[in-house]
User: What shape does this take?
Amino acid sequence: MSEGSHNRALQRRHRVSAAWCAALVVAMVGAAYASVPLYRLFCQVTGFDGTPRVAAKAPTTVLDKTVVIRFDANVTPGLPWRFEPVQNTMQVKIGETNLAFFRATNTSDQPVRGTAIYNIFPEIAAVYFNKLQCFCFTEQLLEPGQSIEFPVSFFIDPAIVNDRDARTVTHITLSYTFNPMAAPKPGVADRRAGTAG
Assistant: This one.
């Protein structure tokens, strides 16, 4: 094999190796971007990590057994809101549909956007805590000084009594944390409308 053909073969192998490395980098970046929504979906489907399930309809069976639901409300630093449950606790029957409210107040002199995430404790109960209506993961806009009450409709799945580990749960905490959201950037149409007048 001549030195020229050896060099060409070596260059070809280097190009193939570089292409595989580039493909791997693209795949890893894609996996990094997809990991958060996939993890959120996994948690919602399985109740993993204290994530309650979202239900399409309430159960038809209501048991005589009750559970105390505690409501917890938090805001992350940088969000000038006061956020609190309207009612701190509720005693609910398993299988019964319930409605709770949380109140948020913008304490600043500017419009502020936020979005809430939630969690359930103990984690073993999350798979049985089902929401029918919730304000979480939805952008909320509060004007200066404005207060809004957000409803949460939920039930505890009667299947909890058949779970050897979860059937002894007597208290469940539903916790929400509001996070600040950046104001949307004006689009091209908005900028044109602003300069047209």
